[in-house]
Amino acid sequence: MQQKEFLFTYEGLKKLENRLDYLKSTVRHDIAERIKQALTFGDISENSEYDEVKNEQAKIESEIAELEYKLKNAKLIDEDEVGTDAVGIGASVKLVDMELNETVEYSIVGSEEANPAEQRISNESPAGKALIGKRPGEIAEVAAPGGIIRFKIIEINKLKAAGS
Q1: Which has the closest alpha carbon to 104: 93, 114, 116?
Q2: Exposed e or buried b for every residue in 73-86, given b needs 16+ CB within 10 A?
Q3: CATH 1.10.287.180 residue ranges for the chain
Q4: In 3-state terms, the chain is what percent helix, strand and coil (to 5)?
Q5: What CATH number is given for 6-76 in this structure?
Q6: CB of 154 closer than 8 Å to CB of 95
Q7: Which of 20, 22, 26, 80 is in Cβ range 3.0-4.6 Å of 67 for a Cys bridge?
Q8: What does the alpha-carbon distance between residue 115 and residue 46 come to, in Å, rounded to a whole number?
Q9: Residues of the chain with CATH 3.10.50.30
């Protein structure tokens, strides 16, 4: 079975590494302390505090394993290779919704960093797939539940890091 490759911007990879570090250093320690405390309450067969913290420990260990897997299979989007002549992963694209005549801007990122509320769409999403490879002036058609949405590409830029 081929392992999935996870695409990340530098910023997204750092967030993932920071989350993993926090879980391994802080949360694991806190859970170990809570387990010790719960064990002082006596018989673990009837100890709801112990059961609760062990369930939480299992969830955290599962998240740690998932994050480690993603990091092991992470591919960093090379910002130097992100072009502005055609839409690609790591680009910010300014569009006009041709039906509503509204300008919108989306960042094209890997699926792990997608967040539609922040206008960060995955290269694997219907909109992302429709936009990839398009050049300024071209039309991208996106199949949506309400019908086809047509976007005209206005401008393509490299993603800016948050806070810049």
Answers
A1: 93
A2: ebeebeeeebeeeb
A3: 6-76
A4: 45, 25, 30
A5: 1.10.287.180
A6: yes
A7: 20
A8: 42
A9: 79-158
d(CA 106, CA 94): 7
What is the C-alpha to C-alpha distance for residues 112 and 4, in angstroms, rounded to an integer? 12
Q: Pairing between strand 120-122 and 102-109?
A: parallel
Q: What is the DSSP letter of 134?
A: -
CB–CB of 108/90 below 8 Å? yes
Q: Looking at domain 79-158, which CATH architecture does it have?
A: Roll (3.10)
Query: For 112-121, what is each residue's pLDDT tens digit?
Result: 899 989 999 9
pLDDT in tens, 54-111: 999 999 999 999 999 999 999 988 777 777 889 988 899 999 999 899 999 999 999 8
